[in-house]
Amino acid sequence: MLDRIRIVLIGTSHPGNIGGTARAMHNMGLTDLALVAPRCTPVTADSVSRASGADHLVNAAPVVDTLEQAVADCTLVVGASARSRTLPWPMITPRGLGEQLPGELATSEARVALVFGREDSGLTNAELQRCHAHVHIPTNPDFSSLNLAAAVQVLAYECRLAWLARREAQSEEPTPPLATHAELEHYFAHLERTLIAIGFHDPAMPRQLMARLRRFTLRARPERMELNILRGILSDTEKLVPQRDDGPA
């Protein structure tokens, strides 16, 4: 899933920000970087230094002239915007974007592009209108300007969280069946019979014992196997109770 998420930088003016973006991507397992009309030389000593070992992403990043070229094969394009726009556009949060990604990338042909604008002016209205949706990072309104690489890091982190959640869900074993109502009632009858046999429960003076045990057990929502274990313990307990002529002691 992460391999099919592309980070697109438009009009970047400082090579260090390209390197910092590459580092943020590599931290989170993203590998696809594209540069649109950068206003600097992408591969420099500064960008390599800021990449801190992720300079292979900088070196492999294609440089194109337009946003359309960078996202031509993408099925979802999301523009990062810190400014309110005169024409409302579908807006999502970083967390909402992450939650949407597994569905968007359910097929191998799907591609998602996350588009970031210039350090000084962001994305133009025309560029934002070429996006399916806008994502806004809810920063401190008194100091909302984020460094480009930091903004990429926030969204890349949400992408990774979504990927980890998807991988965990795929690796989970099937949920064992819960005990049915009938099985629980058989268990409660067995439990009460055993407690009477060992002298722990006196039906003549119940003191809400069975009601409390019922509440405890029902709150736990036991699985069928767990209930079978408990009934096995009760059966073995009953075998240890001395038998009298008139019934259990």
What does this structure look like?
The protein is of the alpha/beta class and about 250 residues long. It has 2 domains: about 1-170, Alpha/beta knot, CATH 3.40.1280; about 180-249, Orthogonal Bundle (Helicase, Ruva Protein, domain 3). It has 10 helices and 9 strands. It is elongated, with a radius of gyration of 31 Å. The model has no long low-confidence stretch (mean pLDDT about 90).
Summarize the structure.
The chain has 249 residues and is of the alpha/beta class.
Features:
Alpha/beta knot, 249 residues, two-stranded antiparallel ribbon, 2 domains, elongated, alpha/beta, Helicase, Ruva Protein, domain 3
SSE inventory with pairings:
Blueprint: E1 5-10, H1 15-28, E2 32-36, H2 45-51, H3 55-60, E3 63-64, H4 67-70, E4 76-80, E5 91-92, H5 94-104, E6 112-116, H6 125-128, E7 133-135, H7 148-171, H8 181-197, H9 209-220, H10 224-239, E8 243-244, E9 247-248
Helix pairs in contact: 1-2, 1-7, 5-7, 8-10
